[in-house]
Predict the 3D structure of the following.
Amino acid sequence: QVQLVESGGGLVQAGDSLRLSCAASGRTFSRYNMGWFRQAPGKEREIVARISGSGLSTYYADFVKGRFTISRDNTKNTLYLPMNSLKPEDTAVYYCAVQDTDWGPWGQGTQVTVSS
């Protein structure tokens, strides 16, 4: 069973940057699409970005295009999400996940809080 551990969240001001990381273990990491999701208080979990196993194909939600960049290092079994120009509306718990037949399992999440 894969295990995912997110890190890199924190409290920042609007316009600042953060880089999230997701360390994976337990599977052949490069075989699977990976994704970043987020969930704000009172809202449903939503996809932020997705990357193919090779890293050659990516998808971004419209609200992060041009600000966030998803990447992966298959030699380190690690997924990344550098986030620039953060906005208060980016405040949420951010999760990484593996895409097999469906999304999951999930990491424990890392809190990102952006103050105005």
